[in-house]
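task queued by scheduler; priority normal; single chain, no ligands, no partner chains; default sampling; output format set to structure tokens
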Amino acid sequence: MDRREFIKTGTLAAVGATALACGTKTQVEEKEAVKGQMEYRTDPVKGDKVSLLGYGCMRWQMIKDEDGNDIIDQESVNELVDRAIEMGVNYFDTAPVYLQGKSEEASAKALSRYPRDSYFVATKLSNFRDFSAEETKAMYQRSLKIFGGYIDYYLLHALPNEENFRMRFVDNGLMEYLLKEREEGRIRHLGFSFHGKADGFDQMMALHETYHWDFCQIQMNYRDWKHAGGRNCNAEYLYEELTKRGIPAIMMEPLLGGRLADVPEHIAQSMKERRPDKSVASWAFRFCGTYPNVLTVLSGMTYREHLEDNLKSYCPLEPLSEDDLQFLEDVVHQLEQFPTVPCTACQYCMPCRWGIDIPGIFAHYNKCVNEGIAVEVPKEEEEGLSEDQKAFKKARRKYLLTYDKALESYRQADHCIGCGECKDKCPQHIDIPRQIHRIDSYVNNLKKSR
């Protein structure tokens, strides 16, 4: 973002903040979620009544144990699951690779306090490193045991194309095995999650006649609908192809890892002016829920406030109008002016062997961009600055203070050696080393200019 654009958007944000502080009509209390009003969608395979809000179990809260190790806060998980079920959520999505391999167990402990037929479990076959039939079957059997002898929705994890699918599941004989497990009822629905280009998706759709996919999980949000970045495919195309074949769509990343809940201030203000009773995040959830072939929308809700806000969007659902959809398209064009890193905080790149907090670095940078802190002034412009420009320069330097508070020094960008181990793991196809080094250079420039 250049100086002029910063000053322009910063002024808009200031005007919006002043309006709120003065108690204008935009200051309206948000409506509460209504118990018993959860929106449900019917699965065409088994007739399951699935809650439109699905619980993504990839971001459970972590705490330190007695030895200082990171562990899942089981008490927090139990409380969140209790509240979700109370409000009608019945779909819980996890995977063997989430939270250092502990998400499945923590999720199962919380859910086991309820009748097994009162909720649906989705988990994944995450055989990214070892494609052998022995190890892949063992991963499936571990999940099967954890969740009581059957899995409601089983996903082949993160497929980009047919070549990857055949390497991981066909050449080793796994598909024949999984199809038999589905036939015998231990897998109630068999599908896959997708990250990739349109041609790879077309290849997987061509296999529908052979394998009869029961569902497909795709990345869908109002930014990726027509403006997917990198090597990802527009969600509009994916959704329409699934709908043509009668394959239910499960939505992941409705908030793009939180980026659509933490938009620049002037955009947030325009959303609140349009719907004072709705949060910024609710626009993204209502967008996904507006499309009828969406079976459920996954959200990784770490804290109670995340859950409560998302419940408001679906208890009950208020679909978006055509005018609302056009408004969001305009929002996307504004968002594209901000140079954020397209990280969704999925943690697939973690842990980094060098201890770097990759998602944390990106999250901090994106937040500062949205708040007008992560900006640059060419050195030749620094002399003779006006008062507005001096404030701009001061905001830029504020980045250093927040950077050191947000990330421990040994986990910051300057420790990256560019090994590239993280790059191939990223489902968003981010050139992680390049982005980390870009942010490191930015930080070094700030230090030199202090």
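post-processing summary
- Residues 1-27, 376-382 have pLDDT under 50 and may be disordered.
- Residues 226 and 306 are 26 Å apart (CA to CA).
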